[in-house]
Amino acid sequence: MGGRAIVVTSGKGGVGKTTATANLGLGLAREDRKVVMIDGDIGLRNLDLIMGLENRIVYHLLDVVRGRCQVRQALIKDKRFPNLSLLPASQVDQKEDISPEQMRDLTAQLKEDFDFVLIDCPAGIEQGFRNAIAGANEAILITTPEVSPVRDADRVIGLLQQSIGDPRLIINRMNPEMVKKEQMLNQSDVLEILAVPLLGIVPEDEEVVIAGNSGAPVVLNERSRSGQAYRRIVQRILGEDVPIPELNGNVGFIQRLGKLFFGR
User: What is the fold of 4-262?
Assistant: First the structure.
């Protein structure tokens, strides 16, 4: 039995998808799992920066696909966790330079050697998306609790259901104070709209930015609220029954509309 291939995706860019991939990869490696992360955002790679591995890249994903090197030559091992590796993307190629079939073959090969293959998917639903989901058996969907990202996430769910099934959802950058002020959707709102299983909620936390800039993802920070949230999410991925704390404020937006128009 091979490892689990999980694509981490979103409908809109800027919701924290690559940051989530880095934190989940490190979190799983902390739990003694053998993990490889694939940066599927060809032409716009960022996963290496967040991981602090940008200066160690020699080969990349397209080099492997084109036969210029072996997979093991392109993998960058994280010095903090030798059981964690990164397969970086190319910055000079296009998403069209690799096919879903090639990604499927590559993912299948990596599943033979790793417990988890995490694929950082480009935002949107174009060629990069089709490539990233091709070899995945599971999907994690990232959204922030705002109307536009949630609407785009809903569209991605429909596409994922056709090939992988229901994704599990991470609501990122939840701010309880903004929820109380009715400036942000709350947990119930998002779940009612998207109707997929909730994997976890990551609170708004300035430590995430600091960690990303330093190449030390926040899951390594024991004091960080978002780091704690990612560690709980990792436990759920591993099958543990870990409660999800609610980060809601007052009555949700959809519930308020119901009371206003339908008296319920």
Answer: Rossmann fold (3.40.50)
